[in-house]
């Protein structure tokens, strides 16, 4: 119930704000005083009075770069905590970073095994210490969804809860729509309306899944085929969409195929 009361207060403050505010604006010293907490102790991760640890995490990304974030964990609690309180991923807003949650997470941490004890606040691509952001293309929402998938894979978390602020709330809704079985609960603070067209959600999810399927296939050793076999495979693969003749397939593959392990016929 503590989380619900806190969330309601945050939402009520945000709704009456005439312009967008960061979580650090909302959960400031005055806010902490209302909860009779010392803001200095809250932000000092080395304090002996605290029952949790804060660890900087960097997750390698295929093709180079990292996804960065801060892992908050109650002392003695397992990283793979499951229901009724799975790990909680915190997603910040536009132009913010994982530091947005520095004042909020300590209010939610609890040494109680029956309460939330593991939080991961990530820096979205293009924000904070995360370096992974394609130089020639960038879509904040898609890149964020991919980043969250990578976080779950890295920690081997099958299910999480999500707290999203502003743009992070939109991303939380999208991720929950794409992967409802992976999200236990969602809290959206100061969020904006997101996609509500279900067929489009299915198409976007399929495209997102394809990113990881291609990455897995790229890890496999190259499979060589004789040139005529490759032409036939290329021809058959294009029959359903964008069909091409066998001769056309042969012409394209003269520039679209490369030798593998010295096989001159490929």
Automatic annotation (TrEMBL):
Task: Give the GO molecular function terms.
Answer: hydrolase activity
Q: Is the Hydrolase keyword given for this protein?
A: yes
Domain AB hydrolase-1 stretches:
86-191
The terms describing its cellular component in GO are: membrane
Report the superkingdom from the record: Eukaryota
Q: Which keywords annotate this record?
A: Hydrolase
Q: Does the keyword Hydrolase apply?
A: yes
The entry's family comment says: Belongs to the AB hydrolase superfamily.
Q: What is this protein called?
A: Serine hydrolase-like protein
**What species was this sequence derived from?**
Folsomia candida (Springtail)
């Amino acid at each position: 119930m503590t989380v619900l009361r806190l969330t309601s207060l945050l939402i009520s403050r945000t709704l009456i704000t005439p312009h967008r505010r960061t979580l650090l604006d909302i959960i400031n010293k005055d806010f902490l005083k209302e909860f009779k907490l010392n803001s200095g102790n809250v932000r000092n991760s080395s304090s002996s009075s605290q029952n949790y640890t804060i660890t900087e995490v960097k997750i390698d990304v295929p093709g180079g770069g990292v996804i960065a974030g801060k892992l908050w964990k109650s002392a003695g609690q397992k990283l793979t905590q499951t229901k009724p309180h799975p790990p909680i991923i915190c997603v910040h807003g536009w132009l913010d970073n994982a530091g947005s949650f520095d004042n909020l997470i300590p209010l939610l941490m609890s040494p109680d095994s029956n309460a939330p004890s593991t939080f991961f606040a990530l820096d979205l691509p293009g924000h904070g210490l995360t370096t992974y952001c394609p130089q020639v293309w960038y879509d904040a929402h898609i890149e964020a969804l991919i980043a969250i998938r990578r976080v779950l894979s890295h920690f081997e978390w099958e299910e999480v809860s999500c707290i999203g602020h502003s743009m992070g709330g939109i991303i939380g809704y999208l991720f929950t729509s794409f992967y409802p079985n992976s999200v236990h609960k969602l809290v959206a603070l100061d969020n904006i309306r997101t996609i509500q067209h279900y067929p489009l959600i299915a198409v976007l999810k399929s495209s997102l899944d394809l990113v990881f399927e291609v990455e897995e296939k790229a890890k496999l050793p190259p499979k060589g085929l004789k040139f005529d076999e490759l032409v036939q495979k290329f021809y058959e693969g294009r029959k359903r969409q964008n069909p091409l003749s066998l001769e056309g397939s042969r012409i394209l593959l003269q520039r679209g195929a490369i030798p593998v392990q010295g096989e001159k016929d490929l």
